[in-house]
Design goal:
There is one protein chain. The chain is of the alpha/beta class and 330 residues long. It has 2 domains: 14-218, 3-Layer(aba) Sandwich (Rossmann fold), CATH 3.40.50; 234-325, 2-Layer Sandwich (Hypothetical Protein Yjia, Chain: A,domain 2). It contains 11 helices and 12 strands. The strands form 2 sheets. Strands 3-2-4-1-5-6-7 form a 7-stranded parallel beta sheet, with helices on both faces.
Length: 330
């Protein structure tokens, strides 16, 4: 059972938990696990996505006690960092009401500039406290992610707490190998194994795990004003369709597509208006690993449509759009 998440007793600053992790590691699943365990508490949730459509925001579980803020089509570590500062400045006006701020970064974020945001502004520093950087790693794809992405390396190296996620999909030997890799990049982080992001919340919230001195050892310049440049080969696009999608046709199209281009299609995520379903259908892929599930019911009066975000290297959006169009129920 989850230990109760209590406000920090040593000050009245709002504790801030930053969830990082490469594309498809399980950040939104962890966020929902946290929010489900915080019923009745006032939490501000900031979700940042690389694509122009906020799919994650649609999948965040809310019960009225959360304030959800979405930053799309930009990264908190660079293009929309100013928006983060402005938002936190506004949130500090609710300091007496808020119990916590939770930030889910894009999978392509460099964590250091996000952290420095909480030190460059005196007002933010006075009202918030960085509690921890919780980094989720995909046990199946970590080795390849580290090989292909500097951001994936930075996220692990900068973490206070690392969740080795999806252990149910790997052997004990593979999990142990990932843990050794994490430890080689970050000797100080606490490591926990998780399935579907499920963890005792007392292990990751109000842990006071963020230590500035340790971060300066990882990146001595992180408090400075330095730019973060993403790999220009990585881009995102969104496929939209108002007509119902035949999910059998969709799976018949996307499965071989991912098998053929799995090393270039890093991450896809979509909410579908699926033919003959009254619920939203969520499809996700991480390289060649796919999942599909029913989500909540479409509300009465809601305009149903499908939005499918694709993130990858050197992809052909026109080819994806043509294939997607053939999945419309006829």
């Amino acid at each position: 059972m989850n230990a109760p998440f209590q406000p920090a007793a040593r000050d009245r600053k709002i504790p801030v938990t930053v969830i990082t992790g490469y594309l498809g590691s399980g950040k939104t699943t962890l966020l929902n696990h946290i929010l489900t365990g915080q019923v009745g508490r006032k939490v501000a949730v900031i979700v940042n996505e690389f694509g122009e459509v906020g799919i994650d925001g649609q999948l965040v579980v809310q019960d009225g006690d959360e304030q959800l803020i979405e930053f799309n089509n930009g990264c908190l570590c660079c293009t929309v960092r100013g928006d983060l500062i402005e938002t936190i400045t506004k949130l500090q006006e609710r300091a007496g009401e808020l119990d916590a701020i939770i930030i889910e970064t894009t999978g392509l974020a460099d964590p250091a500039p996000v952290a420095s945001t909480f030190f460059v502004s005196e007002e933010i520093r006075a009202s918030t406290r960085l509690d921890s950087f919780v980094t989720v790693v995909d046990v199946v794809n970590l080795a390849k992610n580290l090989e292909q992405s500097v951001e994936a390396q930075e996220q692990v190296a900068f973490a206070d707490i690392v969740l080795v996620n999806k252990v149910d999909l790997a052997t004990e030997e593979a999990v142990a190998r990932v843990e050794r890799t994490v430890r080689s990049l970050n000797p100080l982080a606490t490591i926990h194994r998780t399935e579907q992001g499920v963890i005792d919340l007392g292990l990751i919230l109000n842990s006071n795990a963020f230590q500035l001195d340790a971060k300066l050892q990882v990146d001595p310049e992180f408090l400075g004003d330095h730019a973060h440049e993403h790999d220009p080969a990585i881009a995102s696009f969104v496929l939209r369709e108002s007509r119902p999608i035949d999910m059998n046709r969709f799976m018949s199209w996307i499965t071989p597509m991912l098998q053929e281009q799995g090393d270039r299609v890093l991450r896809t995520k979509g909410v579908f208006n699926a033919h003959s379903f009254n619920e939203r259908v969520v499809f996700q892929s991480v390289r060649m690993l796919t999942t599909m599930s029913r989500f909540n019911l479409w509300e009465a009066g809601t305009v149903r449509r499908s939005e499918y975000v694709v993130i990858g290297r050197h992809l052909d959006p026109a080819a994806f759009a043509a294939g997607f169009a053939k999945c419309v129920a006829g």
